[in-house]
Queue: 2 jobs
Job 1
Amino acid sequence: MKNINRITFAKISAALLLIGIITTNEVSGQVSEIKALSKATKSLSSEVFSGGGSDLGFFFADVAVDVFVYSFVDGHRRMMQRRSEEPWLLSLDVDLHGGYYGNENASVLSPSIRGNWGLFSSQFRYNKFQDFTASFPTFDWQILQFNIVAQPGVNFRIGSGFMHEIDNNKSYYEQFMGLELHFNQRKINPVVELRWAEDFETQRTARFEVNTRINWFLARYGRVNVNLMTGFLYQKYYEQENFYFAQAGFTFNIY
């Protein structure tokens, strides 16, 4: 980075401080009870966008632009220079996953798609679980993820976006952290992901999730890798309702 003046340095420092203070709070259930808990909370759309704080918003938007320009562009460029040897740096990951929790006779469907472009990724997921009382669908969009480590044997990313509850029309900021390991020429791929969506008004966690799985390489068709997925999914809603899903499905990597 060249010719960074003191004001720019102060902005970058403020951004790093902001990242450092983003923390998560602590996180026998049935879906109908979760829907009732959701209705009792306030969402990001009703609180964060209800006016005020415009000057602060403009300041942090300016900070974000500066951090992007000075901190990320060069790293992204260098990553993309490796693309001929590491084609997954520009790729799509498509997940068709589902799970079942026997104790509550509950099931979950969670298909997703993620685009990867060097340092950056963006992921969209539809998550719907249900038991005998009701269903609870959400749209989850990780708007921007940063591939902090992107090497042949390991990928570590962090991200931020929102979780939107479809039935109650509420949205919450959602943070993301994921680690992928790759063994035997990417034929055995363990994955651990954390998600937490915060209700800032009530200081409650709308959803906390731990997703652990292994993608087992099956076959390659042209530019598409086909993987069998097996794993475990834990979700906790409104710090009360716990679900433990055994999950399985397929993952497609398109280079």
Job 2
Amino acid sequence: MAMKPGQYNGLFKAPLNQISAYWLGFIAADGSIGRYPSPVFSFGLKIDDAPCVRQLASDVGFPDRVVERAKHATASLRLSCKELVLDLESHGLVPRKARALDGSIIPRKHVRDFIRGLFDGDGTVGLAKPTSRDAMKPVFGIYGNPPLMKSIASVLRRCGDIGEWIRPSTGVMQIQTGNRTTIKNLYGELYGHMPQRFLDRKRISFLEAINYRSAEHNIIRDENGRRLEYIHCFRCGRGAWKRSDQIRRHKRNFCSRKCAGVCLAEERSFYAY
């Protein structure tokens, strides 16, 4: 029997799956729950990420409850649903979570999906120039409560060196790395298993950071004199040399037609409501 619109579908009931583990991580970053005067759940992002908010609303069974406010450039989901709040609490989410979350919220299964959700909410990846004399370099970081960040760092260290730093003014901890190899491994850890949910702009930023090479190392010529440029596949992250006239500037590039086809199918599935 089909479920009526606007009815919680039990997404966060144990055990978690890949989709619910991802959303639990994202909610731990950008969502909140409350108990008084009545149980309430809220989740909001900037309006550019409205498709992501609509996807969450659809996944929990409330596809028509997203509110977009152009004046404030936000998209939000707010639900008064006791069952949903209790299910989230059973996984370790608490009211006023900013200083309360720790490693107990990390699910035993689908850990990478949870971390990807947390990264999509409170993570950053891109290019940085430490000083005016330094070259551009890729950087990765996630911010949060120190006990939770220490647990996340212990998981991600299998990808390489991960540093920890606490902001003295706020007490917020950042786990971070500027090592290119580690960032490539992190991309494989978070996206290599063909996830069903992810924030597209963060994935693109990831690949832009991995793909960056200084001009003198980024271009070669083949035996016919044609320019070849080094790119990283948007789907699998593998590096490949492609002819300059075949590269899509500021857009996605793929190592093969197979990867391009699979990525298109994933996107169609992601935005299907």
